[in-house]
Structure formats: structure tokens, C-alpha cells
Amino acid sequence: ITTEGVTKGDNVSPTSFYGLADILSQKMFRLVLNDPKISSRFLGFCRAQFCGENMDFLIEVQHSEELLADAIDSLSNIQQKYLSAESPLELGLPSGIRKDFMTKIENCKRLTLPALTDDITKSKAYIETLLLTNSYPMFVKHQMTKNVREALAKSKNEYHGLGDCFCITDPTQEDNPIVLASDGFVHVTGYTRSDIIARNCRFLQGKDTNRENTQRLKFSIGSEQESIELLLNYKKNGQPFWNLVLVAPLFDETGRLVFFFGAQVDCSDAIHTWADLLQILSASGSEKERSFKLGKELASSNVGVDKTTRSAWMWSRFRAGAGFFGSHRNKQINIDLKAVGQQERLVSEMQWKKFDAQVKIFYTSYSKYIILSADALQIRFHSRAVVPMLSTNGQIDTKLVGKNIFKVLGKHTSSRNELERAVKESLARGAAVSTIFLMSRHSLLKVDKEQVILHWTPVKDENDIVLYIVLILS
């Protein structure tokens, strides 16, 4: 893969956005289709989303094109060797039969097969366009989200703004303006807090921002639904960056919409070139997991056994080795101040995680978030995903709002005092902090220990006053 000969403004080049890969372009999509490992991943994703028939069609079409090409070669060979006047072999066929055979082969080669090939080409182009505009962007977002989620749980240094780039908007005001922003948001975008507060988040958009993505985001906000999009945004200096954006509504105890919570991750360094994106999209799983993808999910999608077997056989030529993530250990409490908001190179491969065919939406990087009041560190808002995580002795506490976060966390660790002291010292300075501790998960029969990383990030108003703390559990 090379970037030689690329010129600015080439909308299908890997560097069409001033050095950033145009990851949603048709050219990038064709690279994905032609890459065996990524195609296999994409196939599994489409089937898990109940839209695998389009990829299955392309598989069948590819096989048919190969057969048609072989048929044309075979007919030409028969014609030249056995039927033409110059053929070296004499079959002794009657003149009428030989002539009729020759005529039908010529008609097949000149009319029937070309017409069939043309229909196949048109159908294939139409299906590829459907995939390019629908399933492929979802696949890219899913893979980026999964990688970001893995990085959040392992080492948040790997993405710029991961774990500390947040804003809160107020939908009760005209145009849903930003009312609070973290230092990470300021750092990632290059805007000052006074530039940011009171503006709608669309001020980060530019001439090359995909309007379909922004319209989907607008629809989700209007519907008060959680949404995630991968947008091309622009920093204050005009530099574009790929922004993985999460927007989630925050409701009070009466169900009234109070705020929207926004989280951003700068993925630009991770997908600077085609090769970078291909690495992210091609993370392979084990043989067992690929069997799950090609078998069990198909069964849940009511795809017949014969079709499953045939597709699995056709794609078995493209199977590749598994990637992995090395293990790492930490002490029960570990304060990581330098890691907050830094930017480093993305780890090349992530461990495969099978898709749940029943899940209709993405499990986002920040699926477990809590919004705390800055003064008393009481829970004001939280995602549904944190409720089972914070359950004790098998009892799920659905009434977390109003409780002190350290009292809640204290039920899961013996190091509450140390954790509380370290976090409060950092938050008193208005600084974000990441902590790692072992959370005790109680069940009826045993107590399990699970390593949990907590990312605590202050969000501030236009006067740099901290009003809320965003807590991400990973």
C-alpha cells in the first residue's frame, strides 16, 4: 500500500483530507472487500446485523464470475480444438451438427455470456453501493469503537482525548449549546473554553464533514436517543481529525431530559493511512470464534445449512491467524496522572470479541458512565450499563441517583479510603485522574475479583468552575 502520487483534493486517495485517510471512500471500501481477513470480519458483522444477504450475494457472484470465465475459456478451447475448420483433431461429427454447435458457441460467447456478465456487473455494483453507504460505515464505527473500548480498559494513552474529552449540552436552551467542557475537550479541539461554551457542537464541522452522519446524529438527539458517529471534524487551526463521537441523553428521576452528554475521541493517529485502518479492521479471532461467526449466527438469522456450509467453504480460502492482546497486572490502587489526555501509537491488533446477534445498537466505548456533582460527588446521572456492574450480593440497586460515589464503590473494595483520598486530591486541582483497583463482585456462591479502571474527569463552565465530574468505568 503506497501513498505516492497522491494530490490534495483527491476524494478517493488515502490522504484526501490534508494527510488523513479517507476511510469511508469507495477506494477504501474496495480495499476492504479485496482483503481476505477484513472481508471475513465484514461478512460476520453483516450477518450479525441481519443484513448478510448482500455480502452472501457478492460471494456467490464472485464464484459465478469465476465459473463464467472458465466456461468461456472451455468453450473457446472446444471450438478451436475440435470444431473449427483448422482444428487439428477430427471428431467425425456430421457437418450439420458441427455447424450448429459452432453457431451456438459463438452466440453464447458473443451474446448470452456477455449479457449475463453485464447484468452481474450491474447488480454487483448496486449491492456494493448499498454496502458502502450503509453497512460499511457501521462496520468501521463498530471496529473503531471496539478498539477504543479495549484501549480505555488497557491504556488510555493510545488515543488523543480518550477518557477525558467530554462536554455537556443544555437542550432546554435554544440550539442545545455546550454549557460545560473538560480540559481534554479544550486540548483536543484547540479552542479555548470561552470559544466553546454557548456554541452548538456543530461548530467543529467543516466542508468535508459527511452530512449523512451529522443528520443521523441530529435525528438521534431529536429522538432523545444515544448515538455514536465517526465524523471528520476540524480543530481551531483548521486541521481535520477523525472524531469518534458519543452523544447520550441525561434524564432526571422524573424522566425529564436535562442534558446531553458528549464524548469525543480523536482517532486520527490511529487511522492516518490506509494501512493503519486495515490493521484495525482486520483483527482476527480464533478458529472457534470464526466458526461461531460462520455458523451459530447464521442459524440465528435463519440461513439454511447448505448455504452456510457453502459460504463457509468458499471463505475458508481466506482464513488468517489470530491476534491477541497481552495480559497486564496492576496493584490494587494505581494513580495514573501522566496518562490522562496523552497521544501515542495504536496497538496493531485487538482480540476478537464475537458479535451478539440480538444487539441492535453498538456497545460504545463509554457504555458505563456516571455524572457526579462536583461538590458532594453524588451520582446525578448514570447509564443503564453501570447498574448491574455495581450490584452487590446479587441484588441490583436501581436507585443510585443521590448516593455518594465512594459509598457505592466502597461496597466493592477494601481500599475505599485510599481511593477516595487520591481521587479528591486530583479533583481539587481541577485535574483528571485515572485509578485502577480490584472490584469485588459478589454472587451467591463466591466472590470474584475484577480489575476496573476508573477515569474521573471534571467538566467546567466558562469561568473554569467545575460543576460535574464524568466517571467512566472500564
Detailed description of the structure:
A hairpin with a 5-residue loop joins strand 4 and strand 5 (257-266). The chain is of the alpha+beta class and 474 residues long. The chain starts with 25 loop residues before the first helix and ends with a strand. Helix content is 41%, strand content 18%. The protein has 13 helices and eleven strands.
> Low-confidence stretches at least 5 residues in length (pLDDT < 50)?
1-18, 284-364
The secondary structure category is alpha+beta
Number of DSSP strand runs: 11
Number of helices: 13
The first-to-last residue Cα distance is: 35 Å
The secondary-structure element order is HHHHEEHHHEEEHHHEEEHHHEEE
The percent of residues in helical segments reads 40-55%
Mean residue pLDDT: 75
* Spatial extent as radius of gyration: 28 Å
Shape label: elongated
Write the layout of secondary structure elements.
Blueprint: H1 26-34, H2 36-48, H3 53-83, H4 95-154, E1 166-169, E2 178-182, H5 183-189, H6 193-196, H7 211-222, E3 227-234, E4 240-251, E5 257-266, H8 274-281, H9 287-300, H10 305-315, E6 334-336, E7 369-373, E8 379-382, H11 386-389, H12 405-410, H13 416-428, E9 433-442, E10 447-460, E11 466-473
Antiparallel strand pairs: 1-2, 1-5, 2-10, 3-4, 4-5, 6-9, 7-8, 7-11, 9-10, 10-11
Helix pairs in contact: 2-3, 2-9, 3-4, 9-10
